[in-house]
Amino acid sequence: MKKLNLTLTKLILAFFLIIFISLASSAQRSMSDLPVFGAQIFIEPGQTPEDIDTWFRVLKENGMKTTRIRMFESYMHKPGDTWDFSLFDLAFRAAEKYDIKVYGTIFPYTEKTDIGGFKFPRDEAHLQSIATFIEKLITHFSQFKSLYGWVLINEPGVSGSIPWTDFSKTKYQEWLKQNPPKDFVDNGYPILVELTDQRFLLDYNTWYLNWLATEIRKYDTQHVLHVNNHAMFQNCAEYNFPEWRKFLTTLGGSAHASWHFGYFKREQYALAMSANSEIVRSGAGELPWIMTEIQGGNNTYSGGAPFCPTKNEIAQWMWITLGTQGKGGIFWSLNPRSSGIEAGEWAMIDFQDQPSDRLKAASEVIKVVDSNAELFSNAREFDSGINILYVRQSLWAEKKMAMPSQQNYEARLAGGVMKSALGYFEAISEMGVNCNLKEFGEFDFSKDDYTGTTIILAHQIAVPSAYTQKLEDFVSRGGKLIVDGLTAFFDDNLHNTMKTGFPFARLFGGNISEFKAVDNLFEVKVGQISLPAHLWQGYIRNTTGRPIATEDGETVAVLNQFGKGETVWIPSLLGMGARLGGTEKLAQFLANELKFNFSKTPYSFTGQQKAVLMKTLQSGNSFVTVIANKSNEPKRVLLNLTDKTRKPFVLFADKKGTVSGQSVTVSPEETLVIEWK
User: Fold this and answer.
1) Measured between alpha carbons, how far is 44 from 69 in angstroms, rounded to an integer?
2) What is the per-residue pLDDT for 555?
């Protein structure tokens, strides 16, 4: 009888496990879901039920299907260890009334002047208080049908600076036991500048996010788990996306022009959104991703620069997100907060709760997506085979080594590594070609054949010696490697590789005899193209490479055949030179070097189009091109078409852009979206 009862118990448990798995999977956002957009509704004391109802109604009336609510412990946790959720209950009930799905952001108690939230616990007692808050929050709000998912933390990442508290110091000592630092490397050289703190920060971020996810899953096994990364161009070295995929359902990011696009001018904000999106898309891997925070309104006294998006910029950012395979986005925010540093800022409605021109523009984009649901549900970014890789150790090294110079050379400032990569991204984008932007560890080095695939390493100053074999395998199996600047000047212990043993000599075709500081801008002539370069020029002690550029009789660039592939090595900062001196010459150079990649791209520009970019999606038998014109003049753009039998249909044009055959006309600041079928 006991055996029978035990068997019956196991069957019942198995049944409920199947139901549980089914429920859990049905709650996950799928790569084939329809993209949806929404806006953050900011909930704070003083708001009336009528206020809250109005904001959810406005979302509904403008086609928005999702929102994000910051779940303030400080507005729920009352004296005497009692809890009052009534203010936020109003929001979740309004969401149910208007069929809006809610992302709830875990926001434990913090100082009232802290607008972004802390990133790590202060001590064990603080950690336990966070766990208690999560239990109270999750068990209460999981009952609402309007709940879609939980955002683990608002904007993780601290720009490389660890907040040293008793808690973090304890965690660091625990981490050191598993990752003991060394005073010398195997070949005897001393380690004088350490990256240990940055390695710890990478793992510390992952530990805390995983802890939060685990705590939530104790009480809620059904809803989405999400996180939005911020300041991507500065913080990306702290984000171990492949590890995060193990506990997240979706990945996200923040893209506030006034906070996060400091490396760009305003006319480059569409490019910035594209690059930001590519980093998030790569980090997500096979998970869906959304742009969790998009600047929706004016910032007055907060943010790095006062700025208000135009209605055209709102449309550009939405379409670029979609064109990068995003499953939608959430604007920050629908309504302005009433008090604090951001009071009266960022909103998509006016102070009388009426839709701004920005919200109306977003609504028009949503209508197009909704009316072409199957097309956009199944859309995937077309892979050109071009991959710009950033190496997190290079960003770490730059934080340690870079210091401002009297001349304020860009490469001597923190940001030179990422800006070099972005120079290539800009040049390729202006030729209308998709381009991956990945951390080195996110690239798949396991394939047997890389014919038609290109990796670009632009001024990645610190490359671990362990990456040598991966890159050699990539090139020997047919891949193309383009290397510029001081790439691999350091190893991951910040030794100068030219003195401690250059591990890439076989792959690159030689070694460096020396680097010279030249000027803010100088030229490197490769064939008939004089490429602008920045600050440093490298001179190559050639072995197997064929010289393709010389300076006063010395080799400054080589082409090296390696197995079935080849390496182009130009140890001068061409990516940075393009940002400072114009991308035209770099675009010409890349048009020659990436002919194969361009030829397999279904749609591209016949020549470089300054301040214009294009993203290409494939959906079933159709292609979709998103073209944004950021120049101050109308553009007539000719397209390379690999299949001229397809017919173009304009899906969206906010200034009446047109397409005829392979000719496209786009007004200044216009976004033109075309389906080819």
Assistant:
1) 10
2) 98
